[in-house]
Amino acid sequence: MFIVVINYWHTSKLKSERKENVQRAINKLLEKLYRGLESEDGSNYTVYTGTAGIALLHIHLHRRLESGPLAIGAVINHLLKHEDDRKSCLDRLAGLHDTVCTDRALPDEALNGRVGYLYSLLYAQHHIGEEVVDNALISKVASSIIDSGRRLSQQEQCHCPLMYEWHEKKYLGAAHGIAGILFLLMQVKDPSFNESLHTLVRPSVDWMLSLQFPSGNCPSSIGSLSSDKLIHWCHGAPGWIYMFIKAYQLFSDEKYLEAAKRCSAVIWERGILKKGYGICHGTAGNGYAFLALYRLTNDQKYLYQAYKFGEWCINYGKHGCRSADTPYSLFEGMAGTIYFLTDLLDPSNARFPAFEL
Question: Where along the chain is Zn(2+) bound (predicted)?
Fold first, then answer.
């Protein structure tokens, strides 16, 4: 019966209707977003909760419908053919690497640490050209993340070859923890990094796999190994799924694909959230997991599931969900929901913003 529903849902007429529904919702939400931004003070420049995230949304809208700030600035200036400004952003971005690689007080996680910087380098390289960021620089940053993880693992005598912590807590999810760090380390293509991928990153992914709950969900931290509760991109299966998918692509082992499918099953069962509509800890972020599996497998089931989560988001504000601390931002607020809905219009090219490439 499920297959029949999916096949009917995928007919050209319904495809056209659902695209129109999504487009109308995007237009309405953009009106609300612009009105809301008029009252914002604009002093937060970050990708995740500030103006750089709004800029990233507009790059996305431009492409679909017709560190972080430095990387985004470089891409914007590249698109506008402002070569001097582009070069300035890239030079300043690369110039951060000494501090990033040597400052032991700096965390490694994605939102505030070395891996976020690594993503900025990869983002600039991906959207402008490989020649604009030296692969040796990317490998150096990745190696500093490896060294940090190995050092903590040895100090704590952990079973996992790489261990990381943020605010003295060993998180496991995509935002602050090992899943996000390993996923982004697996994006590094420099041949000099291959040994680390096979001897340290892959065994760490295997250790993470051993922690997956029978439900398919995943723990949020070392201190919560028995708590099958959170279904968020930042904490739980919706963030871990990207690590498993990338491991399957790199190492061609079916166990990683099966782990990703178990993640998707629990997201489908429990991933509509009253916490909000955003991408960090909301329904839109959970919907991205289905788009990732759809791109990998071309199974229409996952596209159907992504759109059903999209339907919830189309009715933004009508479910009694909590208001976000930064209600118009990319990761917590409306901008991220708009980003997800826009990706539903072109699911084969969908990417979780500021995380996937």
Answer: 234, 280-281
